[in-house]
């Protein structure tokens, strides 16, 4: 069953499909160039899907699936890197599969503006890559990180959910950490990574206020931080960051954002009929003194006008990006070429992140994550630290809320008393 699935993935990669949907008793559904299509010649029965899931899931992912009725992970089949989401629906167990390039494309191969190569020279600041689901944010970030990896020596740490592109260390030293496998949460990962001597931190996605605050703190402390954010335009991205803070901390966070912001890139994929495939269309904001002043002075409504007048500073609206860059390109790179098998694809075992040889009693096995860091249960001191995320300017010794410390029956009483004394 796994071989049949691998053959399907390989065929879909060769035909330029970006996504595949498999539901019991239904025709194969796929997306190409942004459009949903049906292949009535290919169907999977419910029994075949169940057998496929058993061949794809390791014990850790089975536990996650049973606990929350869905699971998301990345793997490599037939030299094609894929991300799989397994869930339950009215048609029974189903799969949504995203196909990823077999090698990490460079900026030119993605048809991105060459000015993005300047990011590899930056030593500090915040870079936000924004857009809707499926617009290619992760691929763009992988390309930027690999550009840095080839050009200069740095320590790059990524926090991802899941790891989609595996980036081997070249000139830079790269460590990739997966949420739920190597760190329990993005927030905990951000705290840990600040103690690991990083130069560059990549945050897979900013969702929670705590993660946003910790990301800004990392950028403010002199690191280069690259993060993704779900936003449809630059104003929306700025508002989402600023409004994540409680009212008493909003001004502090706004000044943090103004002092650290370097680039905001909003990306969407647009099908170009004249060339027969989709291209990324960007709007680009640069962190000039004018932009920083607009953010500090609560004049976000002026951002759109600043984009129009910021051409000399390398800024683009999406309309100008199409007219002044994409329409003038002499040659377009077909994204199908990115699915050729590459060295990066075969560099690691599929199960490298859950191989039991990588775990010991200190961390707990992936099959029994409650014994180690894979659990989302924090110690008393960590729980207190976690509850204070995002409370900028508050005193953690006097701050109080109604959170509870969860005691497990297997916990040692003396350890519980020691932990609670740390909080008090």
Tell me what you see in this structure:
37% of the residues are buried. The chain has 424 residues and is α/β, with parallel strands linked by helices. Strands 9-8-10-11-7-12-13 form a 7-stranded mixed β-sheet, sandwiched between helices. The chain has 13 helices and 13 strands. The termini are far apart. β10 (200-203), α6 (209-220) and β11 form a beta-alpha-beta unit. α5 runs parallel beside α6 (209-220), α6 (209-220) packs across α8 and α8 (250-260) runs antiparallel to α9 (289-296). The protein has helices at residues 2-14, 46-56, 59-68, 137-151, 186-193, 209-220, 234-242, 250-260, 289-296, 303-309, 318-324, 380-387, 413-423, and strands at 19-23, 27-32, 35-43, 70-77, 80-89, 92-100, 125-130, 155-160, 173-178, 200-203, 224-229, 261-272, 277-286. The protein folds into 3 domains: 2-100, Beta-Lactamase (2-Layer Sandwich); 114-339, P-loop containing nucleotide triphosphate hydrolases (Rossmann fold, 3-Layer(aba) Sandwich); 377-423, no CATH class. 31% of the residues lie in helices and 23% in strands. Mean pLDDT is 83; it is low at 342-357 and 369-409.
Protein traits:
single chain, about 425 residues, alpha/beta, Beta-Lactamase, Rossmann fold, six-stranded antiparallel beta sheet, 13 helices
Percent strand equals 15-25%
Rounded mean pLDDT is 83
Distance between the termini: 56 Å
| Amount of helix | 25-40%
């Amino acid at each position: 069953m796994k071989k049949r699935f691998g053959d399907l993935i390989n065929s879909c990669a060769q035909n330029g499909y970006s996504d595949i949907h498999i539901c019991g008793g239904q025709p194969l559904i796929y997306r190409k160039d942004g459009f949903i299509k049906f292949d009535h010649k290919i169907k999977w029965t419910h029994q075949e899907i169940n057998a496929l899931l058993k061949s794809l899931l390791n014990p850790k992912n089975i536990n996650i699936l049973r606990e929350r009725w869905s699971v998301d992970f990345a793997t490599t089949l037939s030299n094609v890197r894929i991300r799989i989401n397994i869930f339950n629906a009215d048609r029974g167990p189903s799969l949504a599969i995203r196909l990823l390039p077999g090698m990490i494309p460079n900026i030119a191969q993605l048809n991105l503006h060459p000015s993005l190569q300047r990011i590899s020279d930056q030593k500090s600041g915040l870079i936000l890559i924004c857009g809707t689901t499926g617009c290619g944010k992760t691929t763009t970030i992988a390309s930027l990180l690999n550009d840095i990896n080839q050009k200069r020596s740095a320590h790059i740490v990524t926090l991802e959910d899941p790891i989609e592109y595996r980036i081997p260390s070249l000139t830079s030293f790269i460590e990739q950490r997966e949420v739920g496998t190597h760190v329990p949460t993005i927030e905990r990962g951000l705290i840990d990574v600040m103690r690991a001597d990083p130069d560059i931190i990549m945050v897979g996605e900013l969702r929670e206020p705590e993660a946003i605050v910790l990301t800004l703190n990392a950028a403010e402390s002199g690191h280069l931080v690259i993060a993704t954010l779900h936003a449809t335009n630059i104003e929306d991205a700025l508002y989402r960051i600023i409004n994540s803070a409680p009212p008493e901390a909003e001004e502090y966070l706004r000044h943090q954002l103004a002092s650290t912001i370097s680039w905001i890139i909003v990306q969407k994929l647009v099908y170009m009929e004249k060339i027969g495939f989709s291209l990324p269309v960007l709007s680009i904001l640069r962190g000039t003194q004018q932009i920083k002043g607009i953010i500090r002075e609560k004049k976000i409504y002026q951002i759109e006008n600043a984009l129009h007048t910021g051409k000399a500073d390398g800024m683009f609206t999406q309309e100008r990006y199409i007219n002044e860059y994409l329409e003038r390109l002499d040659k377009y790179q077909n994204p199908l070429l990115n699915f050729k098998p590459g060295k990066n694809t075969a560099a690691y075992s599929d199960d490298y992140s859950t191989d039991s040889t990588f775990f010991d009693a200190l961390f707990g096995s992936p099959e029994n994550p409650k014994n180690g860091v894979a659990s989302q249960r924090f110690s008393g001191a960590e729980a207190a630290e976690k509850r204070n995320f995002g409370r900028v300017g508050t005193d953690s010794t006097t701050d109080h809320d109604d959170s509870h410390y969860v005691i497990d029956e297997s916990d040692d009483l003396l350890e519980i008393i020691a932990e609670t004394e740390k909080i008090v």
